[in-house]
């Protein structure tokens, strides 16, 4: 039972409680904590500027005070006797225990709770403008989802009598209403400007209140005080202002540290920037949307960091979110970003947060989640309290975007635009940032639709964004910049590399960076694992470093198995001829055995695999001897690897150019026969026409589900034009040909010409399927994204039942199988969970797994099936019967 210093029988309302320790925090105090955090946040220059932009005007102090009052009332529903009963578990409570969100809305509508609302100044609130109701409802929605406000409220809140005392909600509301008037004096005088009425402002405000609630609910910052203290507001405001700096939201103290240190040398350690980097640095700081197109290896990452540091110095942004397409790319880039921060900020450098589910990393420290929202960091013995609290944003995936610098997957940013829990919180935190999206393209209409909506939200609040791509076609670029699509000739003539701005029509041409790369490229009919294995082994035995990229995990595993088996067979024959001679394993090695790289590995093992790939194909270590690295799309970008030969499945032209970026990245010694970069592209032996049925082969083509064409690379028109480019141009000069290659395979004019050949309408009919699928996906993206032009009062509740499906479609991840205790993985590290591919369904997640460990193998058994986790990754094997 709670301690109580009260001398009367009136039970004070609590806002936060710890039933284990028997302590509580007065409801008025908690509400003041959150309102003080809102005040402190919106006093920060960048956040205030974003708030003004969303409102369409500069908000005066009276309006800001009134917004803080509405924020204070976010938890008014906790006055409910049903909710208060939760804090007295040892008492007989004559009222059914319940929630506080709908109850909070019920206070401010006419009905039995009207007296409570009156005590909370309801009549005065109504005089603040027509948008007051929507903003109040947005505040009450701080738990992460909008809800349908009840039209009426039928249940009164009578006093509750218990053995401990009486709880009277009306008396509690009267006391809190008195504190409201005392603690926010600027809000109550008559007159003044109405509250902002833009729907976009309501959405942004909802996110700020939710963020303030997360901060104001942290007991490390706001210790519990149970007895109502009329002087508490001053204390809460002092703590809140201090908290902004402690958790990393207030970065004004860091801005002087970069003064005079925003030059390229401070950031990178190099003397001169490359052309793309210099072009990005010349962009005016008032430009909100910038697109940087430059070839792989041209230094776009450093260009983005340089723009961030310059915007940060002038106070245009407070933070950076670097969004990458894959987890592997994010993990690798996180280390580079931290090194850059260390160079610029020195000893006071902020810790970059790794915003990837399954990881908990801030700077070089790794954390482990504990019960009751606690985190144990591996360096906490040496880190002081301030250092630990500065990792506040890293402790929860919902808070990633509140970090000063975060590097993560693009889906973490996209969830700020989706109808998922805490989307508004994410979007409000992101508004402070330079949002960098690396490798944007238009190969997935669903993802592009979500990213477009995200960018619209970000820019309407005055945010800054930088989109980067090695291979952005005119179709995608026109969509991002909201411009008319040029015809094919105009598209081909556009400069490359280039910088595009949303305020200037013409792009800025960027000089080509250094040496051109001439790639010998040819087709390899057939996609069978044995043929790929034979070619990879022949090259590796000649001393080449071979990179094999397959379109699917199954194809990568089959290829890896074929090479492993072929080597075992060769060793068997060699043992008979020369028993004392040992032939090295040409496959990439990890923990004493061969390994491959794809997305179906546990997070802990992906770190080890990234390191193994970089070691095997390191540009800094060119000792003689061949090696074969096999993987999927996880190897396409961001890893600093350099191969002599690339063997890849056919894929869309933009993806193919991305893969070619892993080939001959540096001027290095090459073995004989591989002095020029070489690429072999595997295509179906019978061509692509059989896939028009439709049919699916190793990532190409697709299948129809629910009347919509599904697939990985399902647009056969783009694939066929890519195939023809390889036939017609056996040598590609990169980057001089990039623009030509991309437009010749993706522009609608060229696709229309393909469909008009030979009066064969099979291609056109298939293209109609693709177009229909794109329309369906675009509409699907519209259905699951937040419309910030909708008034909060008109919003439908978020689809809680479908939230997992919405989240899953981002990264094509399915159910998470979390182990009760970490178990040994195939490479020696302890693994805590595995994530299933989305197309495996959710059946496994609904069962309790039985875990069996053996050497280099983990068996996860279910009632109707089993999974194996080993050096090949996560494998599904159905049990007989």
Structural account:
This protein starts with 13 loop residues before the first strand and ends with a strand. A hairpin with a 6-residue loop joins strand 14 (498-501) and strand 15. It is α/β, with parallel strands linked by helices and 881 residues long. It is globular and about 95 Å long. The strands form 9 sheets. An 11-stranded mixed sheet has the order 10-9-8-7-11-6-12-13-5-14-15, sandwiched between helices. A 6-stranded mixed sheet has the order 20-17-21-22-16-27, sandwiched between helices. Strands 30-31-32-33 form a 4-stranded antiparallel sheet, with no helix packed on it. The chain has 31 helices and 33 strands. Residues 1-7 have low confidence and may be disordered. 38% of the residues lie in helices and 17% in strands.
Major sheet: order of its strands? 10-9-8-7-11-6-12-13-5-14-15
Total number of β-strand segments?
Answer: 33
Would you tell me the overall average pLDDT? 88
Which percent range describes the beta-strand content?
15-25%
Globally, the shape reads globular
Q: Outline of this structure?
A:
The protein is an alpha/beta fold. The protein is built from 31 helices and 33 strands.
Summarize the helices and strands and which ones pair or pack.
Elements: E1 14-18, E2 23-26, H1 27-42, H2 45-55, H3 61-72, H4 81-84, H5 101-107, H6 114-119, H7 122-126, H8 132-140, E3 160-161, E4 166-167, H9 169-183, H10 199-216, H11 232-246, H12 255-258, H13 264-268, H14 275-281, E5 289-293, H15 300-313, E6 319-324, H16 327-345, E7 353-355, E8 361-362, E9 365-370, E10 374-377, H17 385-389, E11 405-409, H18 410-414, H19 423-430, E12 433-438, H20 445-460, E13 464-469, H21 474-481, H22 488-493, E14 498-501, E15 508-509, E16 517-525, H23 529-541, E17 545-549, H24 553-577, E18 589-590, E19 593-594, H25 603-616, E20 627-631, E21 645-649, H26 653-660, E22 678-683, E23 696-697, E24 700-701, E25 703-705, E26 708-710, H27 716-728, E27 731-734, H28 738-746, H29 748-755, H30 762-784, H31 803-811, E28 813-824, E29 830-837, E30 850-854, E31 857-862, E32 865-870, E33 873-877
Parallel strand pairs: 5-13, 6-11, 6-12, 7-11, 12-13, 16-22, 17-20, 17-21, 21-22
Antiparallel strand pairs: 1-2, 3-4, 5-14, 7-8, 8-9, 9-10, 14-15, 16-27, 18-19, 23-24, 25-26, 28-29, 30-31, 31-32, 32-33
Helix pairs in contact: 1-3, 1-10, 1-11, 8-10, 10-19, 14-15, 20-30, 23-24, 27-28
